Amino acid sequence: MLNADFAHVSPEVIAGNVYDGNLYISYSGGNGAAFDAGSAIASTGVTGLTAVLQKGTLENGMGNIVYKLTGTPSASGVAVFNVSFGGQTVTVNITVAETPVVNTLFWGFFDDSGTPMSFYDGFGKKPSMAMMFDAWTVTGNKDFPVQFCRNADAGGYVPHITWEPMLGLAELMSGKYDDDIRKYGEAMAAFGKPIVVRFAHEFNGDWYPWSIFNEELVPAATYVQGFRYVHDKIKATGATNVYWTWAPNNANGNNNPQTLDAYYPGDEYVDIIGMDGYNFGTSQSWSKWQSFGEVFTNVYSWITQNHPDKPIVICEMGTSSTGGDKAAWITDMFVQLETNFPKIKAFVWFNIDKETNWLFNQTETSTNAFKAALSNPRVVTDRTFGGILK
Question: Per the domain annotation, does 304 fall within a domain?
């Protein structure tokens, strides 16, 4: 007599994972008779699995008949098999577990050198994000960069716009530019797909007019007011596809005593928390070689302690090759991201030669290190960042 209540599998069946194991169905009253292998039985309920009876012998008394179970279950839930054996038919229910949450990592790039975006598809794992800078000055262009967004979208990347209010926050909030902001938001809404907007980044430094303006420190309260002002006006246009990113720098330049807490616009205004940081090596008179951990530990710790539920993205990063081994730094960076910085969902490599040569592909050795790190199954391509961007 078959007893489906005590049926079990080994190993565990997990949704979406290729399975190759056994299904055991207990019986009682075995008479020592031999039996041949059977035909394939497909699962219902959760589909994608097939059970095939294996050749065996009914041991006298009690035992198990064994089915080879293979396939890829389509979802979590219950896979059902209607099994017929020895004139009996029983229904066997097998629990299919949910796919474990994988600590995935996504990557992106910034490059304004004229290099085609598609260049970055050639390192073994396609990027998920393309970043640009859009500076607003008093007399400059204030049109939404729709062509950049279209190009990024066509390449398979989410567009990331770093919106720089170079005219100053007080000027931006004067009302003179409200029509420009409205048109910007309407164009965002018309684009229709997710856009990451990093507004007035690195505010805790001392090198942008939203932190130091006309040699005077801009109050953090003014920054918060400016962030909310622009956010609300963009939202009013219907641009619900915008993901607002608040991004401190890893260091403040020693001339800005205001705390990160004072700059935070509020959870309802921030979708993603970013952070920027670089290993300048010995390329500058004031700099020294720093590991990835030395660059980011302090700001990462602050973010995870104060805003543990917000997704974290490194919005700008890179390493010099002056004063150390760039390839080794890259290799260590990916190890650190997995072991000590697990809440970071994505990073953007600042891939130009500016203050120093930031290119990850500066040499064959550094390129190979980057490629090898991208080959880790943890690094995946998904411009929604695993569903963070809807």
Answer: yes
